[in-house]
Amino acid sequence: MADQITLQVTRYRPEQDAEPTVQSYEVPLRREWVVLDGLNHIKDQVDGTLSYRWSCRMGVCGSCGMTVNGDPKLTCATFLTDYAPGPVRVEPLRNFPVIRDLVVEIGDFMRKLAQVKPWLVRDEPPPEEEFRQTPAEMDEYKQYSMCINCMLCYSACPVYALDPDFLGPAAIALAQRYNLDSRDQGAEDRRDVLSAAEGVWACTFVGECTTACPKGVDPAGAIQRYKLTAAMQSLKDFLWPRGSR
């Protein structure tokens, strides 16, 4: 195995660059090194001006998402040896405005996330004793609770690429995480957002979001599941208008 590999890194410095450029760096190729290790080597040893996000290095925080050889990846979990002999292209996540180098602007995602109220909503106080759930109740939402807000699904989503108003895979999956929680009473609060034209109905079920997800959340499955819920609720509203109940 070669002892070095080339990283072709996207650079964009708005104070001097009109368009992004590509800069190549040689980094050590070690079996235990991930793409993030290569970027850290560049930052620490070669070019301190390189900008990118990272935090935990353990696939938990979701902050180090980038595009690696055309695919959205967590760079802390993407091994350089899988791309040997190289080169390895490292670009910002697609479908987001680039602030600098590999750093993207995530305000749109954060605003959409807040719209679905990704927290437990209660119309009444919880019981004073411990609010227990059965294993079956927890299994209903556990898969969707694994989302780490890495935004890889948004980068992979062709609908979001064409329609920035689309609520997006992660936001919908997290809404389902709480809709399916036996302790939550906020499904009605989330309904108008999820059932809107830019909500679940904008999804064409390509499934790239589920393919890109590093935690097995299956956002595409969450979206299709809520489509059924929304359709059933619309039928009930048609047959039994709220005022007649």
Automatic annotation (TrEMBL):
This is Fumarate reductase iron-sulfur subunit. PANTHER family: SUCCINATE DEHYDROGENASE [UBIQUINONE] IRON-SULFUR SUBUNIT, MITOCHONDRIAL, SUCCINATE DEHYDROGENASE IRON-SULFUR PROTEIN. Belongs to the succinate dehydrogenase/fumarate reductase iron-sulfur protein family. It comes from Saccharopolyspora elongata. Residues 138-167 form the 4Fe-4S ferredoxin-type domain. Pfam families: Fer2_3, Fer4_8. GO terms for biological process: respiratory electron transport chain; tricarboxylic acid cycle. The keyword 4Fe-4S applies. The keyword Cytoplasm does not apply. Keywords: 2Fe-2S, 3Fe-4S, 4Fe-4S, Iron, Iron-sulfur, Metal-binding, Oxidoreductase, Tricarboxylic acid cycle. Binds 1 [4Fe-4S] cluster. Binds 1 [2Fe-2S] cluster. It catalyses: a menaquinone + succinate = a menaquinol + fumarate. InterPro entries: 2Fe-2S_ferredoxin-like_sf, 2Fe-2S_ferredoxin-type, 2Fe2S_fd_BS, 4Fe4S_Fe-S-bd, 4Fe4S_Fe_S_CS, Beta-grasp_dom_sf, Helical_ferredxn, SDH/FRD_Iron-Sulfur. GO terms for molecular function: 2 iron, 2 sulfur cluster binding; 3 iron, 4 sulfur cluster binding; 4 iron, 4 sulfur cluster binding; electron transfer activity; metal ion binding; succinate dehydrogenase (quinone) activity. SUPFAM superfamilies: 2Fe-2S ferredoxin-like (SSF54292), alpha-helical ferredoxin (SSF46548). Gene3D superfamilies: 3.10.20.30, Alpha-helical ferredoxin (1.10.1060.10). Residues 3-96 form the 2Fe-2S ferredoxin-type domain. Pathway: Carbohydrate metabolism; tricarboxylic acid cycle. Its cofactor is [4Fe-4S] cluster; [2Fe-2S] cluster; [3Fe-4S] cluster. Its EC number is 1.3.5.1. It comes from the Bacteria.
